[in-house]
Amino acid sequence: MPDRPRLDFWFEFASTYSYPAAMRIAPLAEARGVDLRWRPFLLGPIFRAQGWDNSPFNIYPVKGRYMWRDLERVCGALGLPFTQPPSFPQNGLTAARVALAGLAQGWGEEFCRGIYRAQFGDGRDIGEPATVAGVLAALGQDTEAALKQAQSDAIKNALRAQTEEAQRLGIFGAPSFVTADGELFWGNDRLEAALDWALSLSRRGGER
Amino acid sequence: MPDRPRLDFWFEFASTYSYPAAMRIAPLAEARGVDLRWRPFLLGPIFRAQGWDNSPFNIYPVKGRYMWRDLERVCGALGLPFTQPPSFPQNGLTAARVALAGLAQGWGEEFCRGIYRAQFGDGRDIGEPATVAGVLAALGQDTEAALKQAQSDAIKNALRAQTEEAQRLGIFGAPSFVTADGELFWGNDRLEAALDWALSLSRRGGER
């Protein structure tokens, strides 16, 4: 029997194009029968290794201006709400830690979509604990318990390990998608190609 | 009567993703009834304005490795031949000047496709006069006359002016597409969106 196809979805909460990817990946994967793993990580250490202490969209303003306009168009085409947040990039550390805890407990995906919607749909600051708490509350989670767990050493270490794994996989931006054989796809635009690759692998597996 | 939709296709011969864009843009535009203007320009001065003296794919090797693999996949999906050229980025100055002359004389588009095919399909060096001459000869052009014309002050100035225009339009990479109302789209992935935008403008024009 062929393995069921799977795809790792690597994302960083501060990443703009991760927003449309996060909002559309689940139904696309479901329709193709691909199992997803949601893998939050931090771009900061990866950018620093490339010599950047800020988002390249801020370092290169002409590219940044284009990105915001393009993101608005991409969201418009997908019917996603879009508001450019007043500050960029935002601090997604707490959200990433909470997501890691939530993904192990079954409410992580909905939390991730909630964080992206708060930031790029409503233009809120996800670095504010109140924003993260609001998303948790909307999911019916015990806000205080979730935020406390997110500060545990286990979660902190898990996020650090996940970021190191992303770097080992050759990930340099977000969103990225990695198939079971290590094939890397970068950008919201490559989601369909990544799903196709995952499926073709699983078919080849079935022919062995 | 509505204006016929048009789209400016801005490309640089050294640009990797301009290759698939150049090979597929004409039939796509034709099928949608969009008039194309092929606009060669030089990325060098634009990159220098951003503080780069080399391609970002060389400055950031992890991104460069990904790009070559991704380009191979993109070309594979389109059925385009692909060979990574031994050197990158190549010097596309002569080719751009010849293209500018050829576009005014009706053989420019085929020349542009020939240059891209030589570089990224066959892995040849388009900075070599022999490569440019070979593409010209395959089109039945008078090689010597075309190369001489490309060195004229008129053509040199026209290419310089075109590069300055690209910069004024906010272009920071290639391929780029610009509609009649100045909307900018960057990357081979955005070709369809740019054509759609050009069409929607022309429809709105028709409703005035």
Q: Topology, please?
A:
Two copies of one chain form a homodimer.
Chain A: E1 6-11, H1 18-32, E2 35-40, H2 44-49, H3 56-59, H4 61-78, H5 93-105, H6 108-121, H7 129-138, H8 143-150, H9 153-168, E3 176-179, E4 184-186, H10 191-207
Helix pairs in contact in A: 1-6, 1-10, 5-6, 5-8, 5-9, 6-7, 7-8
- Work out the number of β strands of chain A: 4
Helix content of chain A: 55-70%
* Distance linking N and C termini of chain A: 9 Å
Greatest chain-chain interface? A-B, 20 and 20 residues
What sort of overall outline of chain A do the alpha carbons produce when their principal axes are compared? globular
Strand content of chain A: 5-15%
Oligomer: homodimer
Main beta sheet of chain A, described? 4 strands, mixed
Order the strands across the largest sheet of chain A as they lie in space. 2-1-3-4
Average pLDDT level of chain A: 94
Given helix and strand content, the structural type of chain A is alpha+beta
Q: Order of helices and strands of chain A, N to C?
A: EHEHHHHHHHHEEH
Q: Outline the low-pLDDT stretches of chain A.
A: none
The number of distinct helices of chain A, counting runs of at least 4 residues, comes to 10
**CA-atom Rg of chain A in angstroms:** 17 Å
